[in-house]
Amino acid sequence: MVRENYIRRQREEHGRRAVAVLPIHYPKELLTALDLLSVEVWGPPGAPRSDAAGRIQPYVCSVVRNALAFLASGGADVVDAALFPHTCDSIQQLATLAHDFGGWKKPALTFLHPKGEPRPSSRRFVAAELRGLASRLEEVAGRRLDPDRLAAAIQLHREIDLHRAALLDGRAGLDMDDAELYGLLRRGEWLWPEEHRAELVAARSRLDPARRRPGAPVLVTGYVPEPIATLEILNAAGAFVAADDYAAVGRRIARQPDGPIGDPWEALADRLAAVPPCPTRATDQDARMRHLVSLLDRSGARGVVIHVVKFCEPELFDVPAIRRTFAARGVPLLYLEGELERQLSGQAVTRIEAFAEMLGQGGTT
Amino acid sequence: MILRRLQYELAARAVGPFLTALDDWQRRAKGTKARTGPFSPPLESLRKLKDMMTVHYLSGRYADGAVPVAWVTSGFPVELLRPLGFHTVYPENHAAMCGVQRIVPELSDAVEAEGYSRDLCSYVRSDLGSLDTGRSPAGRLPRPDLLACCTNICQTVLYWYRDLARRFQVPLLLVDTPFVYGEPTDHQIRYVADQLEEGIEMAEKVAGRKLDRAALSEAARLGRDGSQLWGECLETARNRPAPWTGVDGFFHLGPIVAMRGTEECNAYYRMLKDELQDRVKRGIGGLRGEEKHRLLWDNLPVWYATREITTLLGNGGFNFVCTTYTNAWAEASSLIDPADPIVSAARTYSMVMLNRDLPNKLRLLSRMTGEFGADGAVLHSDRSCKPYSIGQVDLKDRLASEYGVKTLLLEADHNDPRAWASELSSNRLTAFMESFG
Predict the structure, then answer these.
(1) Minimal Cα–Cα distance from B116 to chain A, Å?
(2) What CA dihedral angle connects B150, B101, B14 and B217, to 10 degrees?
(3) Listed residue (B108, B110, B181) closest to B357, CA to CA
(4) Domain locations in chain A as residue ranges
């Protein structure tokens, strides 16, 4: 309801149209430049909002089943279009199921990003896809894309990335618990980017490099921090997230040098290529392992939490490699699998508590 | 190297054919065992099929070190590799063999212990488990020099082949085919064509020779003709009674999957087509008794329970006369143009059913039920294949309401019998049969 009211206000006060966006990677700068509010749909969590979830088999992830139920129940009717990035087999099928067979009556846009290692062919394809998407978004926005506005939007999102990276990197010196920090970072999924930037700037002022957060630092990797109780329990048990590799959060922060923008289309393609390795893009697995190890080393994390959504194939395929990588370094690891529940099971709570306790005692698996 | 090549050629040209001939002779000497159950005697071509596949796998045991070896996904444009002399191995085909032999739980256990989830595709778990345990119905698969993967059937294969690339430390040739909503855009086709050109460079390096473009055109022609011949075999089932069962088609797929783009493959399908047409002329059906109802099967087979399902249905006079799965290797063949093998392959391999949207699949299902006179359809809701299964609930409802086709959604997994509830499925199939009156 908060989001719905916000979307309405944005429309009334700024004349902004809105686009619901499915996970994960998409060129948000294009939407910002066209004055389109992007509102991401990660499920939403909890029980499906309508019986339409039953149109997809229960062995498909809850992100996709909940999204269909949400769209079909009118949960996203306040927006003007939906964008389905080419994240996985399930989301690409959802795009045709919801649009072609019912559940979503407004424009359905797709963004097909290439899979695998960057190649000359994939670079050309991304360039063409970006322009194709821009053209579809222009129709939704009812306005032409202004190159200057695009450059400004790219700059704005670069700044947002910088702030988000600073907060994640310096979190040990931040007087916020994990739930508060993730609440802030995830508001970027639906706030107008300038408002989100203002919140981030305010939060950065609370960073104190001299402060050392008590507790056992951990690295979290996975899809989306839901339910947030996962992190609350981790904190209560004496651990905190010192390094982040959630697809919804850290894996979308590009750490690029802040140089001149030049050709904005090239800059957009560069940004998409600059985000950390993500299994949904099927980039090099070794590079991802190196990235995770570097996150662990930089943050001083003493343990790793793998937090995945059940049936999420891209994430699940990397789990054995993550296990191998950290087992070889003697780093304890906790595997959590959920289905976007609102609450954690008692069993999961006990496992998190035991893991945090073990880290606090300096134990290993 | 020379000795290895000699072993490979001997296995392919002498030992393999000799062993299969010996096996044939022994079987003849013992007399043909009558096929039990509701089915007509097996096709004569089945023996040739078995011989071909045996020789293919036997020679494969000696391929590494003799010729370049590529492990290839079933939807990969294999025509590119033929002129470079690759021996091709199809892990999906191998996994299906593991499924038929019901050894998947044991193989899967091995990889689950390493952290692979049971929610991952059972083909992947089968093949990786086979590598871990050394158990294989094929005896031994040759070590690959190249992994060739096309995402037109799913993205799962990319994760699978990435894992194989790590295990074997060999290059991964990826052809990423963006999903087609409606019609493909020019830049989608261009992207796939560009990747094929990039892939040729990689394959040339591995094979140690340059691609002969004329030979590529010839391989494309052979591939197109083979797919067309396969389609013509399938089309014989439009006759009443159908001369075979759609499930026979699952097993006769072997050559078009594993040997596409070769004359041997095409010769086999010419023979099979002749035999099927002869059966049509003589009024011999796939079922021994009356073919009362004709069905369509959607999705991969349930490899370990195919016999169980078809026998139950066959006893009631129900025959699967067509399947979307076997049709997949025939549907886009007309798009292959030997004069333009790269761009036409880009288009052909992008346009396979699994890479296209649901309205296209509904059109395909309705067309097939119409052309084959199927009055019912069983849609296998396959726990291990999400791209094939998402949308089936709506497809089932639409087939019934818009096309008057009786439908059943059957829950299973194509390779892992632990996801199969035999009694429950029998009850559902029986109730489905009863609904025909």
Answers:
(1) 6
(2) -20
(3) B181
(4) 2-145, 148-360
Report the alpha-carbon distance of residue B152 to residue B175 in Å, rounded.
Answer: 8
Residue with tokens 């295990």: B167
Half-sphere exposure at residue A50, Cβ-oriented, CA atoms within 13 angstroms? 13
Tokens of A195: 């408002």
Q: Backbone phi, then psi, for A245, in 5-degree steps?
A: -135, 35
Q: According to CATH, what is the number of the domain A148-360?
A: 3.40.50.11900
Domains A2-145 and A148-360 belong to one CATH topology: yes
> What's the CATH architecture for A2-145?
3-Layer(aba) Sandwich (3.40)
Confidence of residue B426 (pLDDT cuts 50, 70, 90): very high
Q: Which residues of A85-124 are buried (b: 16+ CB within 10 A; e: fewer)?
A: bbbbbbbbbbbbbbbbbebbebebbbbbbbbbeebebbeb
Q: What is the C-alpha to C-alpha distance for residues B56 and B76, in angstroms, rounded to an integer?
A: 19
Q: Where are the domains of chain B?
A: 2-434
Minimal-distance CA residue of chain A relative to B393:
A55
Q: From the CB of residue B228, how many other CB atoms can be counted at a distance below 10 Å? A: 16
User: In this structure, what are the phi and psi dihedrals at residue A263, rounded to the nearest 5 degrees?
Assistant: -70, 115
**Whole-prediction pTM value?**
0.95
Is the CB of A137 inside 8 Å of chain B's CB atoms?
no
Contacts of A129 in chain B (CB under 8 A): 187
Neighbours of A265 (CB within 10 A): 18
Sequence-distant (6+) residues with CB within 8 A of A76 are A20, A39, A41, A70, A82, A104
Peptide bond into A225 cis (omega under 30): no
pLDDT tens digits, one per residue of A289-326: 999 999 999 999 999 999 999 999 999 999 999 999 99
How many cross-chain Cβ pairs, A to B, lie less than 8 Å apart? 143
Which pair of tokens denotes residue A281? 């893009």
Helix residue ranges, H only, B113-155: 122-133
Digit-coded pLDDT (tens) for B380-402? 999 999 999 999 999 999 999 99
Alpha helices in B69-212 (DSSP H): 91-100, 104-112, 122-133, 156-168, 186-207
Q: Do A110 and B181 touch (CB under 8 A)?
A: yes
Q: Evaluate the CA torsion angle B422, B428, B430, B432 in order and state its sign.
A: negative
Cα–Cα distances in angstroms (integers) from residue B167 to residues A115, A151, B143, B305, in the given order: 20, 44, 11, 32
Q: What is the pLDDT of residues A26-85, one digit of tens each?
A: 999 999 999 999 999 998 999 999 999 999 999 999 999 999 999 999 999 999 999 999
Does A117 contact B117 at a Cβ distance shorter than 8 Å?
no
Give, for A257, the enclosing helix (H) or strand (E). Answer: none
| Cβ distance of A96 and B159 shorter than 8 Å | no
ipTM above threshold 0.90: yes
A92: nearest CA partner in chain B: B179
